[in-house]
Structure formats: C-alpha cells, structure tokens
Amino acid sequence: MAESAGGGSASEGTLGRRAVGEVSATARAAHEGILRRQSARESAARTYARALPIVPVRARGLTIEGADGRRYLDCLSGAGTLALGHNHPVVLEAIRKVLDSGAPLHVLDLATPVKDAFVTELFHTLPRGLADHARVQFCGPAGTDAVEAALKLVRTATGRTGLLAFTGAYHGMTAGALDASGDAPDVRVARLPYPQDYRCPFGVGGPRGAELATRWTESVLDDPKSGVPHPAGMILEPVQGEGGVIPAPDAWMRRMREITAARSIPLIADEVQTGVGRTGAFWAVEHSGITPDVMVLSKAIGGSLPLAVVVYRDDLDVWEPGAHAGTFRGNQLAMAAGTATLAYVRENRLAERAATLGSRMLDQLRSLAGEFPCIGDVRGRGLMIGVELVDAEGDCGRLGDGTSGDGGAADALLGSEPLNGGVTPAVVQDSRAGSPRPADPELAAAVQRECLRRGLIVELGGRHASVVRLLPPLTISEEQAAAVFDRLADAVEAAARDRSGRPPGIRRQRRPDPRHRRQGDRAERTG
C-alpha cells in the first residue's frame, strides 16, 4: 500500500495535495538514489537486494515501510531470523535494558549476568535428553560458523574425518559448511538421499521412498566396499529450507537416529532456520522425538541480532582450551534479545500456534493448487512453507527433474513393510507425487515480482529456485495470514497470465474478494 510521507490536510486544497506529491517525489528520489549507490558500490555477490529492490526505513511486526513510502508484508523475516517480527516490544525492551545498565557490550567468552540468563533460558527449551547433559559453545555471529564448530567438534571427538550429509542440504557459506551442502564439489562428504514426496529420487515418494533412502544409508555404512569410511558425524536438517522446504518424515528421522547411534556416529541437527517454534515445535527434532548428539542454532536465537551456538552432549566435550574461538562470540545485546525471544515464544506457546496457523495456510494453498496446475506442490511444516512452481505444459516424470513416474521397481525392491506414519497433518501430501512436471524458475521469479508489486515480500528456494518460500513471523495474525494468501494468489494468477499473454495453467478465474483491499490495508497498519 502506498502511503505518503507527509503533507497537509484536505482543507488545505491544492496546496496541501501538491505538498504531499512533492514529499512523495522526494522520497522516491531518495529511494532510487540509495539503490543506485548500492549497485555501484556493493559486491556482485549480493542476493536478496537483486530480487527485492526496496529500501526499508521503518518496520514493526510483519510490516516494512520503504524509503519511497510503500508498505510491505514481510514473509522473508530475515530468512527466518525474526521469530517475533520486526522490533517486537519485548526485544526492544531487553536491548534498551542492557544499553541503559552500562554493561559491557563486548566480553569475548567471559561470564556475565546477561550470558548466564541466556544459557539458562536456552537450556530450559532444549529437548530433555540433551538439556540434562549439555554443553554450549558460543561461535562467530552466523549459523555457518556454528556448523564449522560442530564439524570440528565431532572430528575431534571421534578422531575421524569423513562426514555424512544429504542431497539438497544447505548448511552455510564457509568452506566446511559448503562441503556438507548439496552442491559441494569434490569433498570428503558422502552424499545420501534425503526423502521427499514430489521429487523422490526413487520415483515413489511417501513412506516407500523414505524406506529406500534409509536402506541406501545402511548399505553405504555397512558395505566394506562402499568407498565410505566410518564417518565422524552425520549432519541433517529436520526441514530442508534452501533445498525447497522439504520436511523429513518423522519415522525416517528416528531411523537416522537409530542408525547413527548403533554405529557410534554423532548426529548433528542443523536447527539454524527450523528452531524456536518455526515448524510448530520449539525445535523441529521434537516432532520425531529424537535427541541428537549436537544441535546447531542461530537466526531466531539472537532475537534479530547476530548469535550462533553449538549445543552438544557433554561426553563430546574433548576440546583443548582455545580449540575453537571467535572474537564476537560474546554479543551481549544479542544474548539479551535472544533471552527475551526464547522466553516469549515459550511462555506464549507460539510454536503450537505456528502449527495450527501453518496447517490452515497449507490447506488454503492446497486449494489454490487445485485452481492453478502451475503449482506443482505445496509443502511445509508450521510457518515454514513452500509452493513449487512448475511448467504446467511440460512432460511429467522427466528423469532430468529427479524422478521417474514408475514406482513399480521400487515396490519390488522393498519386499517388506515400508516405513509408515511419521508425517503430521501439517506436512502436505500431494496426490501428484511421483509424476512431477519440470520446475519453472522463471515463473517463480515472476510470482516473486508480482508479490512485491502487491506489497508482499517472499523468498525463492529449491533445487531450481522454483519454490516460493513463506517464513512469516510467529506473531502473524489470522487477518494478516489471509492478506498474505490473497496477495500470493493474485500474484500467481498474474504471473501465469503474463507468461504468454494467455492464461496457461489456470483452471478457473479467481473472483476478487471485496474485502481484499480493506483486509490488506488493516494488515499493514497492524504490523
């Protein structure tokens, strides 16, 4: 929604209207100038700024206001960092309290009351099996730093060097984290299949696909001729975010825990994006009931400020003093903001609310997929949601897209009862699994642009950048969620029509809801 930056009242007539126009023109000029200078001076590696040419100047809750006066509903949330949205009062209060107290802001790894309160609250939220025997290492400010620390930890503790990781994984942008990610070249990491329904690598999806992925993992570990030596650890995401918002089946998670425990392989759960209520449980591993040996945490634990930690079983704590360090591991403002965020999510049961609201949003998006065949799949858990865009006129089940439409061979291989259960109602089961159409990254990019025009910020992810991702704050209201759905639905329709000047992949035209504009305006005002 466009909103003027200033001006007079209606009674001031033409002069007042001109003043409003002049202010708006000035704001637009400032906005464009900042973007031009960013393009001229910043690295070619910048990412979000390319697809989202906005200049945020104010923000509250779900709403961002740009330098040009436009307002947006932010479903990027700092890539999942803002569990409570922008500038939540409890976070601001916690930060001001530290600033007003005169406490040091930089203390390396020294003990402080702020740090003690953060660790106490963090341990209070951990899965019981880990909290009772945990140690915590504060790392550099980003999740990738914590991943590096976790890999170093298990290698030190086991004396081994190899790693097990999964196709589609994303663990960060530093060297070791990239090694464990899905597109790593020529590294000492064994790549295992991650179960998924829509683009199952075995062409079957569901419990059968998860069972085959499990058997593959067991074979790699137990076959002396597999070429994979006994590894130092296994790292996995309970929901793959950058990989396309793919929730791991709960039963498969339990099998990974059983397999690693039986072979004395430390299991590392990367909860950088899935943690702090995002998926409908405080930590995503709690859906399956497993207790990992190591948890990598960042993003929301800092309450919008940089903070990253590794939490691990005390028997792995074999580091020598100084074996891992980082200048900015003592960020007091982030610890204060993190304590406030963790406590607020826990006390207000925002994880449970994310499960309920997320399930409702998934249902709505599935109904939208019934109208638009260009929506190939809708999936997610809690308020971590993905909508995959496909070429509605492309060939189904093309091997180049990671699947075969024939599951018969896989059925024959199973022989015994496959894994079943383990998928909560919040995880979408798509009836078109096993015969996916080609991913359509161009359409996904067009949908993202159309969303931005309508005042909605979304991210793209997935193997081919064809998945529209929704990561709203856990505090999003039902009215705001409805406004997000309306804007996304309109954007999908507009992008599909613009592809060729006709409506490809549309089964029926959506009728405008007369409440749409009013609802969206209220959603922006309420933050």
Count of discrete alpha- or pi-helical segments spanning 4 or more residues: 16
Strand order of the largest sheet: 4-12-11-10-7-5-6
Question: Helix/strand/pairing class, anyone?
Answer: alpha/beta
Note the gap between the termini.
13 Å
Fraction of helical residues: 25-40%
How many beta-strand runs?
Answer: 17
Major β-sheet, in short?
7 strands, mixed
Average pLDDT figure: 85
Q: Tell me the fraction of residues in β-strands, as a range.
A: 5-15%
Shape: globular
Give a description of the structure.
The protein is an alpha/beta fold and 527 residues long. It is built from 16 helices and 17 strands. The protein has helices spanning 13-41, 48-51, 77-80, 89-101, 113-125, 128-131, 143-158, 175-179, 206-222, 250-262, 332-347, 350-371, 408-414, 441-453, 478-498, 516-526, and strands at residues 56-60, 63-66, 71-74, 134-138, 163-166, 189-192, 233-236, 239-240, 246-247, 267-270, 294-297, 309-313, 375-381, 384-389, 456-457, 459-461, 467-470. The chain has a seven-stranded mixed β-sheet with strand order 4-12-11-10-7-5-6. Strands 1-2-3-15 form a four-stranded mixed β-sheet. The chain has a four-stranded antiparallel β-sheet with strand order 13-14-17-16. Strand 16 and strand 17 form a beta hairpin. The longest helix is centred in the first third of the chain and has 29 residues, at 13-41. The radius of gyration is 24 Å and the shape is globular. The chain starts with 12 loop residues before the first helix and ends with a helix. The model is unreliable at 1-21 and 397-434 (pLDDT under 50).
